[in-house]
């Protein structure tokens, strides 16, 4: 036999409550009024009964009103709470005392509001992350950093932003992908790593030009390449670097720290950054081609300068040898050594703008001619300055005639204002100039030139550089 369950009034549905309310307010009072009409003849005899009947009519109508109002107020409160949430108060939650459809609706709405609040907070966090990514990358793009440094910063920022363990940018050449930059990748001899186009996840993306978001990669034999090489262990997302339908390479993030897989937001962020990265790589290649052509042109000009002046022939080559020895003796880094070598070859490039009657004069220059000759330092800087990669070389070309006592040209820098590479170039250039023949004098011997360096150490030349030069050359 089925068990009969009797629900309390609070547990009744809205419809049932309204029906009960209508019965209490309308049907029962009408029945009672009919009863009174039928017994009107005996009204005097039933005076007490009439009073009781009227009492029940009023009571029923009152109870019906209270119940109906209670139902209506539940709906009104629900509407007000919903309005508060829609106006931005996501902390608001709907509270009800009932156990009916209004309560169920309130619970559903509270759940939706909680999810909405969570999603909005995540969106705010994502916005902050994206702003941070764009700010750091924008600063890098607007700086003089090389493309490798910019991409390292970009990759590091992306890895941190999405909570990945590692990331890698690979460039495609002759159907082979090689590592260009990486972050958090625990692989030795990264520059020797090669992935053929079409092999594994990265190779597939480089071949098809479509993104891939893969989880549990160790369970799929197609992705053995990434697992064996140590790129990823559980998940990876990889997108192509494309420029005008041309695939330049790939960018991938591996092994998300907090979750098993990368989200759609992660994929979207990586795709957006891949577009910007591809443009930066292609522009860098174009700029390198332009700069290479420019450097070749001005190098040819430097050779033309030496060809014009037979007395300075071989000067730049010898200065380059001296600065290389000194730079290594001072343990300067490879980039600074290359900068010094370039400056040695190009520091006199400005002489291309000096009149031949001044440049080739077979006698000592007068004061006006000397001023003309001194302009070659500024002219040289102006020739080199358009090339961003030669910015430091341009600085050395401008100041290679300065003196530590502040009486050189063109800016009268003192020793404290000069960096070590400049001090090295000044000594090397002066030594070769003194030991080379000129139209108006015979060149000194190397020993005589070294004595001159020592004589003017602390006046024209930096003492430490002079001492080192004397010892190693």
SSE run: HHHHEEEHEHEEHHHHHHHHHH
Report the CATH topology name of the largest domain.
Hypothetical protein af1432
Q: What is the CATH level 1 assignment of the largest domain?
A: Mainly Alpha
The portion of residues forming beta strands comes to 5-15%
By secondary-structure content and strand pairing, the structural class works out as alpha+beta
Would you kindly provide a written description of the structure presented here, covering whatever features stand out?
This protein is of the alpha+beta class and 473 residues long. The termini are far apart. The chain has a six-stranded antiparallel β-sheet. The protein is built from 16 helices and six strands. It has three domains: 142 residues, no CATH class; 140 residues, Beta-Lactamase (2-Layer Sandwich); 164 residues, Hypothetical protein af1432 (Orthogonal Bundle).
List the helices and strands and how they pair.
Elements: H1 14-38, H2 47-86, H3 101-141, H4 147-162, E1 164-173, E2 176-183, E3 194-196, H5 200-208, E4 212-215, H6 224-229, E5 235-243, E6 246-256, H7 264-308, H8 315-329, H9 334-346, H10 356-359, H11 367-374, H12 376-384, H13 391-399, H14 420-434, H15 446-455, H16 463-472
Antiparallel strand pairs: 1-2, 1-6, 2-3, 4-5, 5-6
């Amino acid at each position: 036999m089925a068990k009969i369950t009797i629900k309390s009034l609070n547990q009744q549905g809205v419809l049932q409550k309204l029906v009960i309310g209508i019965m209490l307010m309308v049907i029962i009072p009408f029945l009672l009024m009919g009863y009174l009409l039928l017994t009107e003849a005996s009204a005097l005899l039933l005076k007490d009964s009439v009073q009781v009947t009227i009492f029940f009519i009023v009571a029923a109508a009152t109870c019906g009103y209270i119940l109906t109002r209670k139902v209506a107020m539940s709906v009104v409160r629900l509407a007000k709470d919903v309005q508060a949430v829609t106006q931005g108060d996501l902390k608001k939650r709907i509270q009800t005392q009932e156990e009916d459809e209004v309560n169920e609706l309130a619970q559903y709405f509270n759940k939706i509001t909680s999810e909405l609040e969570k999603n909005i907070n995540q969106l705010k966090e994502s916005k902050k992350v994206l702003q941070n990514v764009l700010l750091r990358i924008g600063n890098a793009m607007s700086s003089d950093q090389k493309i490798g440094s910019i991409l390292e910063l970009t990759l590091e920022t992306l890895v941190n932003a999405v909570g990945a363990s590692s990331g890698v940018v690979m460039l495609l050449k002759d159907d082979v992908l090689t590592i260009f930059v990486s972050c958090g990748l625990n692989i030795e001899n990264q520059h020797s790593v090669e992935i053929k186009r079409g092999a594994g996840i990265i190779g597939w993306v480089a071949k098809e030009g479509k993104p891939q978001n893969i989880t549990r990669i160790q369970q799929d034999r197609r992705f053995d390449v990434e697992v064996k090489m140590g790129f990823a262990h559980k998940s990876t997302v990889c997108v192509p670097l494309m420029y005008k339908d041309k695939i330049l390479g790939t960018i991938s993030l591996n092994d998300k720290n907090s979750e098993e897989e990368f989200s759609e937001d992660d994929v979207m962020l990586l795709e957006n950054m891949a577009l910007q990265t591809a443009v930066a790589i292609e522009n860098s290649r174009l700029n390198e081609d332009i700069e290479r052509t420019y450097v070749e042109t001005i190098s040819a000009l430097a050779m033309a300068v030496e060809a014009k002046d037979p007395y300075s022939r071989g000067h730049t080559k010898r200065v380059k040898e001296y600065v290389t020895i000194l730079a290594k003796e001072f343990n300067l880094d490879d980039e600074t050594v290359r900068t010094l070598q370039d400056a040695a070859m190009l520091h006199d490039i400005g002489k291309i703008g000096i009149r031949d009657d001044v440049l080739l004069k077979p006698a000592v220059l007068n004061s006006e001619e000397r001023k003309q000759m001194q302009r070659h330092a500024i002219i040289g800087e102006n020739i080199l300055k358009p090339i961003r990669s030669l910015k430091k070389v341009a600085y050395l070309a401008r100041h290679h005639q300065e003196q530590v006592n502040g009486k050189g040209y063109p800016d009268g820098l003192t020793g404290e204002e000069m960096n070590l590479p400049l001090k090295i170039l000044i000594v090397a250039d002066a030594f070769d100039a003194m030991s080379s023949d000129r139209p108006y004098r015979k060149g000194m011997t190397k020993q005589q030139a070294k004595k001159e360096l020592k004589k003017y150490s602390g006046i024209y030349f930096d003492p430490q550089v002079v001492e080192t030069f004397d010892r190693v050359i």
